Amino acid sequence: MKKFLFLFILGVFFFVPSLPVQAAEETLYICGPCSRNFVSIAEDVIHELALEDNVHIKLVSCLGACTVSPVVEFKGEIYGHMTKEKLFALLRSYFTL
C-alpha cells in the first residue's frame, strides 16, 4: 500500500506542473460619467497585449474620483489620470508579460 501511495504522489507531482496554466479573468471597470472616452483606448491596450480572454471592460455608473479622470478600477484599486501607457504597464505587470 505504501508503494502505491508513493507512486500516486510521484505521478501527481510530475503531472500537475505539466497542466497548462490559464490566467484568471479580470474586469477593468471604467467610470462612465467622466471616462467614457477611455473605453476605446482600453480596448486597444487589451488587444495589443492579447488579453481579450483575460480582461473584460465594464462601464460603471461612477467610481467617485471624477476629478482625476480618466478613472479605472482594476483588482479593487482605483487609478486616476489613466493613459494608454499607464494601462499598458498596469496590465503587463499584473499578467507578467
Are there runs of 5+ residues with pLDDT below 50, and where?
none
Average per-residue pLDDT, rounded, comes to 85
**What portion of residues belong to β-strands?**
15-25%
Annotation, overall tally of beta strands: 4
Largest sheet: 4 strands, mixed
Question: What is the oligomer described by this structure?
Answer: single chain
Distance from first to last alpha carbon: 45 Å
Biggest sheet, strands in spatial order? 2-1-3-4
Q: Label the structural class.
A: alpha+beta
* Radius of gyration from the alpha-carbon trace, in angstroms: 20 Å
Q: What is the 3D shape?
A: globular
What is the overall number of helices?
A: 4
How much helix is in the residues? Answer: 40-55%
SSE pattern, N- to C-terminal: HEHHEEEH
